[in-house]
Amino acid sequence: MKKLLSLAIAALLTFSCALTAFAAADDSATPDEAKTPVELKIIEPPSKTYFWEDVVLPSESVKNVYADSEHYYAFADKMNAYSFNPMLDLSDAKLEVVYNDGSSESVDPADCTAEVSDPFNYGEVMRTALDAAGNLELDTPYEENLRWYYSYCISLEKQIDREYTVNVSYKNLTATYTITTSDYAVDNLIMDEPEDPDDSSAHDYPFESTGEELYKVVSITPAKLYYTKADITDSYLYDGKTYYNFQPDVSGTKITIKDTKTGKLYTTVLDGTESMDVYSSTVSSLTEPNQVLRVDFVADVDDCFGITTPTGYNKNVQFSFDVYFNHQSTNDTATKDNATKNTVTNDNGSVPTGSPITTMLFTLSAVIAGGALLLSYRKKFEK
After folding, report:
1. Buried b / exposed e along 299-326 (16+ C-beta atoms within 10 A)
2. Are 284 and 162 in contact (CB under 8 A)?
3. Is the pLDDT of residue 68 over 90?
């Protein structure tokens, strides 16, 4: 009888250990199976500011073309093949992926892809601008031609001077951030301003190209990026609407250029007295916040950088950057919900520690083992 009882206890204990081992194996597999990515977060968006050289422009251009409306509409049909295509850079973005268990980890921007979700089509914006400007004939008088030109340019600016949503993809997850652009993105759609036949100085522009291009802009750090109503210099009325001009302040702007033949870098900080031609896009509203305006200027390299450009090369170089009118911060502060989002708790507030099946099997094993021991002691007491 004792041998039979010992065998029964041994069998029960073996069965108990087997159940515990099975439960442990089952529980160890659960976290890996359950941990799946559920959200991609952009902690800090890329800081890159986009200039004309950062946009893949169509190869065709209306510059140096003087035609009538019919020919311009035909050109717009050719531009249907192109859409806004900036060369997006995620290199300094901070990204993280969140898993369904509440944990998170950083994501390498190199593992992500990005594309503009709402790009404009060059043909469409040009046709809209042509419609806004009205009919143009080759023999249109200068004053009327000039009004047509400004109406066309203003329409282009209104269509593209906005925010664009960028989709960032990682595996099957997507997050978004925004970028802005200005009329540099349609530079090849902006026609040359009609010349005044009575202005003999129109042909004396001091910053015309003087030879082969030699210098390339490496970096620009504007000293002043934000403008307000106090910076408005004058205004003009066109088609029943008032537009405002401001004089860009480039004093303190740090510029670095590169000699593409020798590779040598030149850096200067402008004081505003250099030989330059500075101009900007117009302000369409004195109250609308976060208007993005483009500042362009052409500078005499020899005067600005104190160097002598070799004969046969262009000593003028063009710079551009975006500034902001009525800038308002859009940064959001963190909330309690965001602070606690990564903590997953049970209904009673305790932190989950394992699978329900693990708890059940462990309990069952303990009961079986306890029953066997109790039966053994009971037989001893009955002796």
Report:
1. bbbeebbebebeeebbbbbebbbbbbbb
2. no
3. yes
C-alpha 206/C-alpha 276 separation (Å) is: 9
Do residues 118 and 164 make contact, with C-beta atoms less than 8 angstroms apart?
A: yes
Amino acid (one-letter) located at 2: K
**β-strand 215-221 against 254-259: which pairing, if any?**
antiparallel
Q: Are 351 and 345 in contact (CB under 8 A)?
A: yes
374: left (phi over 0), alpha (psi -120 to 50) or beta: alpha
Backbone angles phi, psi at 148, to 5 degrees: -60, -45
Contact 83, 119 (CB under 8 A): yes
Separation CA 345–CA 169 (nearest Å): 29
**Is the model's pTM score more than 0.90?**
no
Q: Determine contact, residues 85/96, Cβ cutoff 8 Å.
A: no
Distance between CA atoms of residues 327 and 227, nearest Å? 8
Distance CA 156, CA 348 (A): 60
Q: How far apart are alpha carbons 68 and 43 in whole angstroms?
A: 50
For the chain, give the number of residues. 383
Nearest to 90 by CA among 162, 169, 21: 169
- Express each pLDDT in 51-66 by its tens digit: 666 788 888 889 888 8
Per residue, what are the HEC states of the chain? CHHHHHHHHHHHHHHHHHHHHHHHHHHHHHHHHHCCEEEEEEEECCCCCCCHHHECCCCCCCCCCCCCHHHHHHHHHHHHHCECCECCCCCCCEEEEEECCCCEEEECHHHCEEEECCCCEHHHHHHHHHHHHCCCCCCCCHHHHHHHHHHHHHHHHHHHCCEEEEEEEECCEEEEEEEECCHHHHHHHCCCCCCCCCCHHHHCCCCCCCCECCEEEEEEECCCCEECHHHEEEEEEECCEEEEEECCCCCCCEEEEEECCCCCEEEEECCCCCCEEEEECCECCCCCCCEEEEEEEEEEHHHHHCCCCCCCECCEEEEEEEEEECCCCCCCCCCHHHHHCCCCCCCCCCCCCCCHHHHHHHHHHHHHHHHHHHHHHHHHHHC
Q: What percent of the chain has pLDDT over 90?
A: 37
Distance CA 239, CA 242 (A): 8
